[in-house]
């Protein structure tokens, strides 16, 4: 079983819709959680950290469920520019970042 | 702002050749990393340097060596390239090894070993 698992997609979503995807992690000792965004043939960039109480940044909302060991990302009012691959990242008890393989999102006009 | 700069951007090697990937950051970060990214897989850590003067193996260190030349620079060397090392390589840096710190990435090196 992979340590961090994501649905690879692609998720094909019309512009303006709401889309959500989850990521599950296997190590209950994981300390920190992040969502990164990676555009095609580019480097990953931090989208947002995920806090225990959940957090929001504009149209993006991240949630953490420690009991079920998953994090989620919700994108509201999706834009064409949101098309990218979203990478779930978990920092384990040894401070190493464990990366999911990513969920590809395609926003259609 | 340059951030993290890595060179080269593209490279084709023949099996058995050697090369060094260069990485430099101008953010005064303590920690630096080398990752590889293969299709359908998450980024995998090759080596990291939690602070200047230290280096440690990550998940997939075999076939690679690193040097933390100074606080700014962290190089990755392939001594004898193999086709299995065909990948996209990313250098990254962060303020610290511990804590909730953001990792900043270079633009990547697309390496093909034939």
Keywords, separated by commas or semicolons:
heterodimer, A: 109 residues, mainly beta, six-stranded mixed sheet, five-stranded antiparallel sheet, B: 114 residues, seven-stranded mixed sheet, four-stranded antiparallel sheet, 0% helix
Give a summary of the structure in a few sentences:
The complex is a heterodimer of chains A (about 110) and B (about 110). Chain A is mainly β.
Which blocks of ≥5 consecutive residues of chain B have pLDDT under 50?
Answer: none
Strand content of chain B: over 45%
User: What is the count of DSSP helices of chain A, taking H or I runs of 4+ residues?
Assistant: 0
Number of strands of chain B: 11
Q: Count of helices of chain B?
A: 0
Beta-strand content of chain A: over 45%
Give the helix level of chain B as a range of percent: under 10%
The helicity of chain A comes to under 10%
Net shape of chain B: globular
How many β strands of chain A by DSSP?
Answer: 11
Q: From N to C, what is the helix and strand string of chain A?
A: EEEEEEEEEEE
- Look at the helices and sheets of chain B and give the structural class: mainly beta
Distance separating the two termini of chain A:
37 Å
Q: Largest chain interface and its two residue counts?
A: A-B, 21 and 21 residues
Mean pLDDT of chain B: 95
As a whole number of angstroms, the C-alpha radius of gyration of chain A is: 13 Å
The helix/strand series of chain B, from N terminus to C terminus, equals: EEEEEEEEEEE
Largest sheet of chain A: 6 strands, mixed
